[in-house]
Design goal:
- By secondary structure, the protein is mostly helical.
- Helix 1 crosses helix 6.
- It comes from Nocardioides jiangsuensis.
- Belongs to the ABC-2 integral membrane protein family.
- Keywords: Antibiotic resistance, Cell membrane, Membrane, Transmembrane, Transmembrane helix, Transport.
C-alpha cells in the first residue's frame, strides 16, 4: 500500500463529490431530513423521540453510506474509470482504502450534522457525552461504507448493487434490536443477531444515550467493546473487498 496513491485516490473521490451536488445532498441533507420527519411523526403521536432517536442515529448513516458507496463504485466501474485506475500502479487496497478515507471524512461531517440536529434542535435527551454519540455515528457510517465497497465487488451494474440491500442491510435492521430487544428474540434469531455488526452499532449508540459512567470520558466500558466489533467488521470488509475486486470489467 502506498500512502501517496491512497491519498490521491481519496482526493479524487472528494473532488468528484464536491462537484456532484445531488450525491452531496443525499449524503449530508437526507439523513437530517429523515430524522426530522421521524421526530415529527412520533412527537405528534406523543411517543417521544428519546427511545427511537439513538437507534436511528446508528441506522440512517449506515444505510445512506452503504447505498451511496456501492452505487458510486459501480458507476466508476461501468464508466471504465475503475479499470483505468487499476491498470496504473494502483493496488486494490490503495483504491478501496482511498474510497474509505474519502467517504469516511464525509461520514464524519454527516454524523456530526445528524447528532447536532438530534440533540440541539430535536431535543434528544442523552445521558452520555455528545462527542461519543458522534464517534459512534461516524463508526456506523464507516461500517456502511466498508460493506458498500465490499458488495460492489460482486455487482456488475448499479441496479445489482442496490439489490444487495435486501440481503445485507434489511436483515440487520430487523435483528438489530430496533423493533424488539435482542434478548427477547427466539434463540436462533438472537444468535444470528449476535454476529451482525449493526447490532453492536445500535447497542453502542443506545448505551451512550442512556448511560452515564464515571469511566473514561463518562463513557460506559461496554461501548468501547461494541465499537471494536464495528471497526473490526469494517476492516475485514475492506480487506475482503480488495481481495475480491476484479481488475477488469466483465
Amino acid at each position: 500500500m502506498s500512502a501517496r496513491i491512497l491519498f490521491a485516490v481519496a482526493g479524487r473521490v472528494l473532488t468528484q463529490l464536491r462537484h456532484d451536488h445531488r450525491t452531496a445532498a443525499m449524503l449530508l441533507v437526507l439523513p437530517c431530513l429523515v430524522l426530522t420527519l421521524l421526530w415529527w411523526m412520533f412527537d405528534d403521536r406523543g411517543f417521544g423521540f428519546d427511545n427511537l432517536g439513538p437507534p436511528l442515529l446508528a441506522l440512517i448513516p449506515f444505510i445512506v453510506m452503504f447505498l451511496v458507496t456501492s452505487v458510486t463504485t459501480l458507476r466508476e466501474r461501468s464508466s471504465g474509470t475503475l479499470e483505468r485506475l487499476l491498470a496504473m500502479p494502483t493496488g486494490k487496497l490503495d483504491l478501496l482504502g482511498g474510497y474509505a478515507i474519502a467517504f469516511g471524512l464525509v461520514a464524519a461531517v454527516q454524523s456530526a450534522l445528524a447528532v447536532f440536529l438530534s440533540v440541539w434542535v430535536l431535543g434528544l435527551d442523552i445521558a452520555g457525552p455528545v462527542w461519543m454519540l458522534t464517534v459512534v455515528a461516524v463508526a456506523d457510517a464507516v461500517l456502511g461504507t466498508a460493506l458498500g465497497l465490499f458488495v460492489s465487488a460482486f455487482a456488475r451494474t448499479e441496479f445489482q448493487a442496490v439489490q444487495f440491500m435486501p440481503a445485507v442491510v434489511i436483515p440487520q435492521i430487523l435483528l438489530c434490536g430496533l423493533f424488539i430487544e435482542r434478548a427477547l428474540m427466539p434463540p436462533v434469531l438472537e444468535a444470528v443477531s449476535n454476529v451482525l455488526p449493526l447490532s453492536y452499532a445500535v447497542d453502542a449508540m443506545t448505551t451512550v444515550a442512556t448511560t452515564s459512567s464515571p469511566g473514561l470520558g463518562g463513557v460506559d466500558g461496554s461501548v468501547w467493546g461494541d465499537l471494536a466489533v464495528v471497526a473490526g467488521f469494517a476492516v475485514v470488509s475492506l480487506a475482503l473487498g480488495a481481495a475480491t475486486l476484479r481488475r477488469r470489467t466483465a
